[in-house]
Here is the input.
Amino acid sequence: MSNFEAQLEISHDCPYCRFTRKHPDSTITAWTNEMMHVAVIESEDQSTLDDYEDGFHEYLPFAHVSRQRGRLEIAYGAEHADPSSVIHLIATSGCIYTQPNVTKDGWESYRIFSFSQENIVSLVESIKAMGGEVRIKSIRPVELPCFCSDMLVPAESILAGLTDKQVEMLCESFSSGYFDQPAKVTADELAKRAGVSRSTFTEHLRKAEGKVLTNVFPILRLACKRDVPGKHE
Here is the structure.
């Protein structure tokens, strides 16, 4: 029996679609689990982030909000999510999707997987029934190994913003035991191998670590067992 993958673009009456339609310079990247929803809004225009932060406080005043370097992060408990959301419809249609999903120009992009093509068709019909629009970019059968591996967080999401040199230094440092306790190699030795000064090496490595942590922080936020910061009982 084949498994199926579908690439869907969905536009409906939700805060993310409305906001990115209003601010086409912005992008929203979102992660969800059974406990929490985390979204990162990116824009070079600080007034765009101001507008969204003000609007979101009205929509969900208990949400955690933080800002840095052209990014606004919001987090709230999953129990406050809209029960008619696309994510809920995906689950009730017998489908799953890869995370994160991205919203741009009023359209949410989803990569959907299911063990049945009929489930994907049912999902599309459910979205249209609630007034949404759907662009079906593709539907294709996939083999089980591909189905399993492609459900992982895409590498491009984790490595976004890293240079080839930063990726190279991270790989060399990790494989050489620099992050072991105790470390098996020093920063001086790694810098010598790379043909750069120690200060240059550590600067590249710190920037690379910072970018990776920035990219995976929403996932860490989902895994954190503490209550959502800023949430009041």
Notes: Residues 157-223 form a domain with the Arc Repressor Mutant, subunit A fold (CATH 1.10.10). The chain is about 40% helix and 25% strand. The longest strand covers residues 133-142.
